[in-house]
Amino acid sequence: MSHIKQFFNFLEKKEGKKKPFEYKLIYEPDSIVPEDLHIKGSLDLYGSEITSLPEGLKVGGDLNLSDTPITSLPKGLKVGGFFWIKGTPLSKNYTEEEIRKMCPGIRGSIYM
Prior knowledge:
This protein is of the alpha/beta class. The protein has helices at residues 3-15, 21-27, 89-93, 96-102, and strands at residues 38-39, 43-44, 58-59, 63-64, 78-79, 83-84, 105-106, 110-111. Helix content is 29%, strand content 14%. The termini are far apart. The model has no long low-confidence stretch (mean pLDDT 92).
């Protein structure tokens, strides 16, 4: 078990702290519940090993997926701010227009 997992398990058990969404998404995706899918602020996954996002994810601010291996976007994705996908297979395989057709809920600029 990694030190990160040990740390968050400790905080959850001893302090009653909820694990952050980014942690669940990367390390425990099966533990994500519907309430987790509404992010009020920004979500920065830059450089992570994330390969997919859960269906129905709504990010009130910016979403940064730059330099990740992500290859597809989920149905119902909403981004209230900027959407960063530079250095991903998405930026190499799709145009901005195609990304917007896939995810009409992206409100801000797309940086490819």
